[in-house]
Amino acid sequence: MLPRERQSTPATARLQLLAASCALLGSASSRAQEANAAPTESGVLQDWSVDSALAYYHEDGRVLAIEPIVNVSKVYPHGQLLNLNATFDSLSGSSPNGALTSRVAQTFASPSGKPAHAYTTAPGELPVDPHYSDTRIAFGGSWTTPFTRVDQVTVGAKLSDEHDFFSATVDASIAHDFNEKNTTLSFGVNDEFDSLSPIGGAPVPGSDYALADKTGGKTKDGVGALLGVTQVMTRTWLSEFNLSVDRFKGYLNDPYKITSIVDSAGNTTGYVYENRPDQRTRKSAYWENRVTWNSPISTALSLRYMSDDWGVRSDTAQLHLRWTMANRDRYIEPTIRWYRQTAADFYTPYLMGGDKPMTGYESSDSRLGPFHALTFGLKYAQKLAGVAGRSNSEFSVRAEFYKQTFDESAPTPGALQGLDLYPALEAVLVQVGWRF
Amino acid sequence: MRNNCAKFWRNNDFKQKDATVNCKPMRLLLLLSAAIIAGGCSSLGVKPWQRDVLARDEMRLDANPLDAAIDDHLYFSKEASSGGRSFAGGGCGCN
To answer: Are residues B89 and A192, on separate chains, in Cβ contact within 8 Å?
Structure first.
């Protein structure tokens, strides 16, 4: 994998070219400036490349999110690259609590335990907590520096804070170019520490929901490693292959998810908090190919296989097709993504009677269930001249439609037959972007 | 009975201390793959003056980093998988 930060954006490339041109012009340029001082660009960001976006995300009948994000970077004279970014998320709406749809109305306490936030789900409806609300602010940065002509190292850090979650991550990677810089071998490691302080406390895994047996904050931490190779195949074909592994330990439950207990007739008799293992190891292989087919058409195809020791296996394929037009001043980029995953070993949509889960663990979180998903997207980007004092900038807008369809095949108890127990998830993403 | 190394890898049983796990075929396969890749890579590639197309924006692996970041956040919060292109993990409490 090529570290993302090491590659120049168009704006930084322009700055580098400008710097090189100035060096070549030398003293003649200086004398010319003395004689005829030309106005220069000013402002705190004049040496920086800026990439920004505002995303609007809406799930049908569920969560709504707004996410502004900005990324600034600067190339220093000896090739070092500083990258800083900030993200803000605002989420609100309804989130499934994990309970099963029922023939009768179901009433749930809010995680905070406040009576005013208790909610009732109508018969035949998927139980969702309608008071879901959260904000997140995150900052990240990285510093890349070459230490030989063909080697460079990158170090980075990221902090993310929500009112019930805090995360800190550090990472480091090294990259080595060889074969006339046609091949890059890279290796990186990261370490993540998360602190959870759920509203109302962290439930004891597997405990009775009615007892609200909760404790204080919890933590989890993880380490990961990634080995990658990037290869220039031909003049129009670039390939990347990565192998990665990560291992998390600690409180890996979603503290707001519960599982329904149903009797043999399909009537809900109670709920328990989910109970996931406290360790998880994931491994993945990722392969991406970028090809320019002719002057206006290029594609980026990526394939990923992932497996973990929870029993989840997933396949992902994504294709971007870019059609560049009008002297490369604008482009259209349709996208399609296909995803499929198997269920975790302990996934169950419900628990039958007083039976203990066979694996000792249980979760009805649909994100650990079997499903497939499709994403269709379209992006339009237009280069603009003379905006914000820059000779060139790019405005873009894109939209995506995401649909998740459940592949559950568990037997349905009598009273539940005819109900839509696994409703599809549909979401729309709209994003505007501006880079200069 | 000797366990198969591929099965060992597939089952993620890192805590297993079974001396009978036979990883020799896997090691040979990895070495062979590395040799093929190293040999193959040396005959691939272009000369510096042939990088005109590769220098285009759309040929960069991080051509749209913010699009990728926003998509990764979406998929991390809705699916059981993350990472691959870069490090996994999300830095958010959404999963």
So the answer is: yes
Name the percent of chain A lying above pLDDT 70.
88
For strand A49-59 and strand A425-435, is the pairing parallel, antiparallel, or unpaired? antiparallel
> Which chain A residues touch B8 with a CB distance below 8 Å?
none
Q: In chain B, what residues touch A181 (CB-CB under 8 Å)?
A: 48
What is the average pLDDT value for chain A, to the nearest integer?
Answer: 87
Q: Tell me what pLDDT residue A356 has.
A: 73
Contact by Cβ (8 Å): A107, A120: yes
Contact list, B95 vs chain A (CB under 8 Å): 254, 367
Q: Which two tokens stand for residue A1?
A: 């994998």
Q: Nearest CA of chain B to the CA of A134: how many Å?
A: 10
| Domains, chain A, with CATH or none | 4-435 (2.40.160.40)
Q: What distance in Å separates residue B48's CA from the closest CA in chain A?
A: 8
Residue B62 touches partner A, C-beta closer than 8 Å: yes
For chain A, the C-alpha Rg in angstroms (whole number) is: 26
Q: Chain A to chain B, count of Cβ pairs less than 8 Å apart? A: 201
- Kindly calculate the radius of gyration of chain B based on its CA atoms and give it in whole angstroms: 20
**What are the two backbone dihedrals, phi and then psi, of residue A12, each rounded to the nearest 5 degrees?**
-70, -35
Whether residue A180 and residue B52 make contact (CB cut-off 8 A), yes or no, is: no
| A120 CA: distance to closest CA in chain B (Å) | 23
CB A158 within 8 A of CB A147: no
More confident residue, A402 or A47: A402
pLDDT for residue A289 is more than 80: yes
CA distance A255 to A234: 50
Joined tokens for residue A374: 């499709």
Looking at chain B from residue 76 to 95, which residues have their Cβ under 8 Å from any Cβ of chain A? 78-81, 83-89, 91-93, 95
pLDDT in tens, A344-385: 999 999 998 867 777 789 999 999 999 999 999 999 999 988
Question: A402 pairs with which residues across the strands?
Answer: A375, A427
* Residue A115, token pair as written in the block: 């009576």
d(CA A13, CA A31): 26
Whether the complex's predicted ipTM is more than 0.95 is answered with no
Amino acid A107 reads T
d(CA A381, CA A65): 23
Question: Scanning the structure block, which residue is given the tokens 């204080």?
Answer: A216
